[in-house]
Write a structure and sequence with these properties.
alpha+beta; Jelly Rolls; seven-stranded antiparallel β-sheet; 3 helices
Length: 199
């Protein structure tokens, strides 16, 4: 009835993660984050509903040693993954900040504008304190067939010490924390730097 069937997985999106515990000491990182919270109590509001949103920092331009080490580790990982899939890219700039969500705090659905790659590292994530939900933002979201077969969304339970990277255009949100334990994560924007402005 059929012959010579060809199947291609077109327009795939990447979601890659790795455990950074060999490089990042969370027992040093978390107190550094707490110190920043004490020095910057007037936290910002972006996608966060409740909770704390730190100031943002460009990598290599802050005096937060463990956060800087984390940013350098994340950047090295992203470079490695882009090389692994043989992508052509120029130098990436890194901007990062962190968020703390406690009881009933969550992050609304959002995306990161023109960022090429985004990442999130979980410094503290007690069990059942909220899943990371990733939503496709192309026309597939209007298809009944694809949506009812869960092709329009992906949900994962984050792990402490693990870094996750994905394309910056994907919509995502983090569910409400139903516990009295805090959830702490560091978010990253990776933006390609074009040395030639006319490129």
């Amino acid at each position: 009835m059929y012959s010579d069937i060809l199947r291609d997985n077109i327009f795939p999106n990447m979601l890659v993660s790795a455990n950074f515990d060999d490089s990042i000491d969370r027992s040093i990182l978390v107190p550094e984050m707490e110190k920043i919270m004490g020095e910057n109590p007037n936290d910002k509001k972006y996608s966060n509903e409740g909770g704390y949103h730190s100031p943002g920092y460009w990598h290599t331009r802050s005096d937060n040693p463990m956060l800087e080490k984390l940013a350098a580790t994340a950047l090295k990982f992203v470079y490695g993954e882009l090389n692994h899939i043989n992508w052509d890219f120029d130098k990436l700039r890194v901007y990062y900040w962190f968020m703390v969500n406690e009881l009933n705090n969550y992050n609304t659905i959002h995306q990161h504008g023109t960022s090429d790659i985004i990442g999130v590292y979980y410094a503290e994530i007690p069990e059942d304190t909220g899943d990371l939900n990733i939503i496709r933002n192309d026309g597939i979201s209007y298809s009944s067939l694809f949506c009812k077969n869960y092709q329009d969304k992906f949900r994962l339970k984050p792990e402490a010490g693990r870094f996750y990277m994905m394309p910056g255009h994907l919509w995502h949100f983090v569910g409400a924390n139903p516990t009295n334990k805090r959830r702490m994560c560091v978010a990253f924007n990776f933006l390609e730097f074009f040395p030639d402005p006319l490129r």
